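Study this one:
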Amino acid sequence: MKRLFKIIPENVQATLLLRYFGFFKIPLLFFVKPCVVEISDNRVVVKIPLRRRTRNHLRSMYFGALAMGADCAAGLIAMRLIQKSSHNISLVFKSMAAEFLKRAEGDVYFACEQGSQIAHLVAAAIDSTDRVETLVHVTAKVPDKFGEEPVARFSLVLSLKKK
């Protein structure tokens, strides 16, 4: 089994684990079918396809699906770093703010590039008995329609506590 995981690309493994997690823990996450495009200790990119399930009445992505994409991008990088730490740490988002700049009329890519800051937060959670928090930013883009121009920006307060 370990050999199989060595030949499967890391982003495909992460996608399968995300969907497994969604199926058993957060069914709505499984329903929108997110896909991990890129994953590392510093950066995560998650794609949510624009389909009938994620569209609103204007044929753009529904804001709930956009919020799920931001949650996935920030949460995945934190979960990856927590898993590497081998400690039992609970993860929750305390608050979220969103700025919608354009209508997302295509597949949306959510990027979180704060891996080093989240790694410091994980280390702080390991050393503390209190809950620790940091502000995490996620940018949403629709490259097929707008190139590198963001369609939305999200700010989430990530909160960690060692169990």
